Amino acid sequence: MVELKDLIFGINERPFGLSYSDWTVKWWNWIIQIPKEINPLFDINGKNAYLNQIDSNVFFLCQTLESSDKIPVRNIKIPKETSVFMPIINWISILHEDGENDQELLSTARERMNAVKDLQININELELTTNQLKEFRVQSPIVDMFLPKKNIFDHPSRKTRIVSDGFWIFLKPISDSIRIESLGSCSSGITKIGVDYNINTF
Questions:
Q1: Sorting pLDDT into bands at 50, 70 and 90, what band is 5?
Q2: CA dist., res. 52 & res. 124, Å (int)
Q3: How many CA atoms lie within 13 A of 122 on its CB side?
Q4: 154 exposure class (CB count in 10 Å sphere: 0-12, 13-18, 19+)
Q5: Model pLDDT, residue 2
Q6: Considering Cα of 70, then 71, then 77, then 78, what sign does the dihedral take?
Q7: Ordered DSSP codes for 112-132
Q8: 20 to 30 A from 75, CA-CA: which of 41, 43, 137, 198?
Q9: Which residues contact 39 (CB under 8 A, 6 or more apart)?
Q10: CA angle (25, 170, 63) in 5-degree steps
Q11: How many other CB atoms are found less than 10 A from the CB of residue 52?
Q12: Element containing residue 93 per DSSP (H, E)
C-alpha cells in the first residue's frame, strides 16, 4: 500500500538542497514573472504549465488564482524522475497592498491561512485530508521581488517586498503517470481553490 512518505518529501527535508520555505520563494518568483494573459494560474487545460520552468529537477504546478465553480483539469507531460512542487492553497502579502511593513505583511498572510478549514488532495489511490496536510503549512522568508508589467495582480511594475503563507506538497521524483486532485477552502466556505492534474511522464 502506498503511504504518504513514499510520495511526498517530509516538511523538514531539504529536497535538492533547499527547504520547503526556500522553494516557495522560487515558486512565487516563477509564477509572478509570467504575464497574466498566459499565466498558468488562468490555464484551463495545462498548455501554459511549461512556461518559465527553469529547474531540471523540479516542475512547478499551480492552483487557480481565485475561486471557480468549474475545477480546471490540466494535462501535462514531464520527464521521468522529475519532482513536482505545488500549493494546495496559499497567500502572498505584497508591500503597500497588504501591509506597510514586514510585520503587517506577516500578520496578513497568517490571518489568511489561519482561516483555511478544509484541505484535500488525492494522488492516484492515496487520499490525504486536513489532519495529514496541516503539517505542510509553510511560511516563506520576507524577500524583495520584482513585479513585471502585466503581472497577475494588475499592480504597477515595481520592486517590492513579499511574504507568503500556505499549504504545499513536494512530490518525490515521479517515474509513472499520476493524477492529482486538490482542494482547499477557507472556514466560511466562500473561497474554494481546486485543480486536477493528469501528469504523464516521458
A1: confident
A2: 27
A3: 9
A4: exposed
A5: 76
A6: positive
A7: HHHTEEEEEEEETTEEEEHHH
A8: 137
A9: 31, 48, 51, 152
A10: 70
A11: 15
A12: strand 82-94
Phi-psi group of 195: left, alpha or beta (phi > 0 → left; psi -120 to 50 → alpha; rest → beta): beta
Beta bridge partners of 63: none
Cell of 184: 482547499
Using CA atoms, how far apart are residues 135 and 182, in angstroms rounded to an integer? Answer: 16
Distances (CA, A) of 153 to 32, 102, 148, 200: 9, 19, 10, 31
Phi, psi of 17 (to 5 degrees): 90, 0
The pTM (predicted TM-score) of the whole model is 0.95
CA atoms within 13 A on the CB side of 194: 21
Helix (H, G, I), strand (E, B) or coil at 23: helix
Nearest to 28 by CA among 162, 156, 128: 162
Grid coordinates of 144: 524583495
Strand 137-139 to 58-60 pairing: unpaired
Bridge partners, residue 72, by sequence: none
pLDDT digits (tens, 9 = 90+) for 26-79: 999 999 999 999 999 999 999 999 999 999 999 999 999 876 678 999 999 999
Confidence band for 98, pLDDT divided at 50, 70 and 90: very high
Which residues, 6 or more positions from 130, have their beta carbon under 8 angstroms from its beta carbon?
A: 117, 118, 119, 120
Amino acid at the residue 79: P
